[in-house]
Specification:
Elements (H helix, E strand, L loop, with lengths): L3 H4 L4 H19 L11 H26 L2 H9 L9 H7 L5 H8 L2 E3 L8 E3 L21 H20 L16 H16 L7
Length: 203
């Protein structure tokens, strides 16, 4: 068989040379680690399939959230826990050698954090036997300032979702919706920007 070059006309050669160049370029781009690889590459095609699957999942989750009943939301909220460093179970373990009356007396010195997604309890009487000499005010509602802020955010989330869903929820979005990689990257960049410029946000 004659060599291919023998069959090429003068007009074919520039196109063939360009094709060879594009083939080399395609091979190089196929191995690019960047998730924004060209769609013409194997990685790019794979990323597109993953993106489409992700979007379909998000659409399904959005519809589920829109029509979920109030009872279903309360059930999901019940199992969502953000903090549980020291719970009533931990206290009971510490007081396992107490008799019933001693336990009841000690239990009255502790309060459950009012943030719905926190399981912590904290002392409101400095005579407690776990951290004697330290307690929060008796009229306090949260174990930490972080929980106070989180409780406020949960209330705002309920008010927001009550406007767009059939029933509102106190849950953070990440608890029932898939967060895309792009969104994670944007959230990370936003967080880094605020951290680097925190003095501009100070009151």
């Amino acid at each position: 068989m004659a060599d291919l070059d023998e069959w090429l006309t003068a007009a074919d050669r520039p196109h063939m040379e360009r094709h060879d160049h594009e083939s080399d370029d395609l091979t190089a781009k196929t191995n690019m680690p960047d998730h924004k690889a060209p769609i013409s590459t194997i990685e790019g095609a794979g990323n597109l399939l993953a993106f489409n699957a992700e979007q379909l999942m998000r659409q399904y989750e959005a519809e589920q959230a829109r029509t979920r009943s109030a009872a279903e939301w309360r059930r999901l909220e019940k199992w969502h826990i953000e903090r549980e460093e020291f719970t009533i179970i931990d206290l009971a373990h510490r007081l396992r050698d107490f008799d019933r009356e001693e336990y009841r007396a000690e239990r009255k010195k502790w309060r459950r954090c009012q943030h719905r997604f926190c399981r912590n309890i904290y002392p409101v009487d400095s005579t407690n036997c776990v951290v004697p000499g330290w307690s929060k005010r008796k009229d306090s509602r949260y174990c930490t300032n972080a929980c106070r802020v989180a409780a406020r955010d949960a209330q705002r989330e309920y008010e927001r979702t009550a406007q767009i869903y059939e029933n509102g929820t106190y849950l953070p979005v990440y608890a029932y919706r898939t967060i895309t990689e792009d969104q994670k990257e944007r959230n990370k960049k936003d967080s880094e920007f605020i951290s680097e410029n925190i003095e501009n946000y100070a009151p």
